[in-house]
Amino acid sequence: MYQALDLDHAGNSRQTFCSWTDTSWRSLLLQLHEAALIVEDYYLPPIGEQHLVLVTAGDTWVESQTNGRWRGARYTPGQIGLTAPGRPTLLRWRSEVGQRTLHLYLPGSLMQRVGLELWDRDGIGSRQADALAVADPVVEQILLQLAKVAAEGSDDLYAEGAAEFLAVHLLTRYGGMPQVASPRYEDARVRKAIDIMRDNLHAPLTLRDIADEVWLSVYHFLRVFKSATGQTPRRYLTSLRVDAARRHLEQGDASVSEVAHLCGFSSPAHLSTAFARETGMSPSAYRQSRRRRA
């Protein structure tokens, strides 16, 4: 459970989307907010998550109090605020046109694990990202893409990969950690990972499950897999699952719901979305077309 879910935004902003309830993502927490025009003394208590805020619309002058002193910044689309785990925040802002923001929360346990796995040190503490306003095109594009795929109903495997990358990016760019070198013996590990995927298409695999089996950190696994195959593990696994679904649709009479379950999709809708992306048609239309040819 994310401590951010317990934050009280009443009177300060209106939440319009929450990945916890709307997509069942657990690897990260994504929320969309519409802010009030004028807010004074908005206190946010310390929480255990790394907090990122991306402005997607509006023009607002925002101030934050640190050690009794106020600092300010103009928030326009593309500006990003960073609040480290365990940091309380006192905010105030003023806008004439309103503001929409995308809030991303990364688990503190993730930040700590990444620090330990990649640098053999604790990722929590003074090395965490904290800034009132920064411009970071990499983070901006990832957050916008997360909002897009969340609206489409993508599964948690996508969110898990994004969370791992963001944790490493924040620790290297804003926490002073050195760049991470790739491990050796990549091909054998990638082949083993693909075998694990093929043998467990029906199971709710996570990146962590697969990375543990091939003795890599999740971040390293993502890098070496993409380098070897040209695809992310999520995209590759989805393609394998769609191929399996095609065989079920061609050779059996299982319903679309049953095929989704057999092939590891979280729902018939998720199967239909992935299937249409890969084949250009729905599962039902595909089955009908194959039967007409028979």
From TrEMBL:
This is AraC family transcriptional regulator. It comes from the Bacteria. Residues 191-289 form the HTH araC/xylS-type domain. Signal peptide: none annotated. Pfam families: HTH_18. SMART domains: HTH_ARAC. It comes from Kribbella sancticallisti. Keywords: DNA-binding, Transcription, Transcription regulation. The lineage of its organism: Bacteria, Bacillati, Actinomycetota, Actinomycetes, Propionibacteriales. InterPro entries: AraC_XylS_family_regulators, Homeodomain-like_sf, HTH_AraC, HTH_AraC-typ_CS. The keyword Transcription regulation applies.
